[in-house]
Write a structure and sequence with these properties.
Layout lengths: L38 H9 L4 E7 L2 E6 L2 E6 L3 E5 L2 H10 L4 E3 L8 E5 L6 H17 L3 H7 L1
Antiparallel strand pairs: 1-2, 2-3, 3-4, 4-6, 5-6
Length: 148
C-alpha cells in the first residue's frame, strides 16, 4: 500500500511522510505497531543506530549521542530532536498540539514532540533517524569513521 502526502503543497523533493495526517490503513498490517511510542522504545530505536550511545551529562538526565554530539533528548512525556528548519515548520503546522519548540535549544533546528500518539510511531522513528543523520553530517571524518 503506497502512502502519499495529503496536503495541497507542491514539493521540490519527495516529502516522505513528514506531514501525512490521517491515513486509512487496514486494521491488521503485518509488523505494524499502533499506539504510543514509549521512552524505552525511543531509547531502543536510537541505540540501534551505528555508534549511538546514551550519556548522562546532567544528574538523572539521559541524552543519546552520535560520537560527541547529542541528537536526542528523550523524556517520559516528550522527545526533543534535531530537524531541518523546513521539516520543523511542517511538523509544527501538521501537529500544532504535539510539536513545539525544545526548551533551551535552537528553535529553528530542534523540536519537542509529545509522546502522546499524535505523531505516528513510524514518522517518529523516521525523525529520530533523520536527527541522527543531521548530527553525523556535522562530525569530522575521523569521528564519522569511529561510529562504524
Amino acid at each position: 500500500m503506497a502512502l502519499r502526502c495529503d496536503t495541497e503543497v507542491q514539493h521540490r523533493r519527495p516529502c516522505g511522510l513528514r506531514h501525512v495526517r490521517a491515513l486509512a490503513l487496514p486494521v491488521a498490517v503485518a509488523g505494524a505497531h499502533f499506539g504510543v511510542m514509549t521512552y524505552d522504545e525511543v531509547l531502543a530505536c536510537c541505540r540501534n543506530l551505528p555508534g549511538a550511545w546514551e550519556d548522562t551529562p546532567w544528574e538523572d538526565d539521559v541524552v543519546v549521542k552520535a560520537g560527541p554530539k547529542v541528537f536526542v533528548f528523550p523524556g517520559a512525556e516528550a522527545v526533543s530532536l534535531k530537524v531541518r528548519p523546513e521539516v520543523g515548520d511542517e511538523l509544527r503546522a501538521a501537529y500544532p498540539d504535539a510539536v513545539g519548540s525544545a526548551p533551551y535549544l535552537n528553535k529553528k533546528h530542534w523540536v519537542r514532540i509529545s509522546l502522546d500518539g499524535t505523531v505516528p510511531d513510524d514518522e517518529l522513528r523516521e525523525l529520530l533517524e533523520d536527527s541522527y543523520r543531521l548530527v553525523v553530517q556535522g562530525l569530522t571524518r575521523a569521528q564519522r569513521a569511529a561510529l562504524a
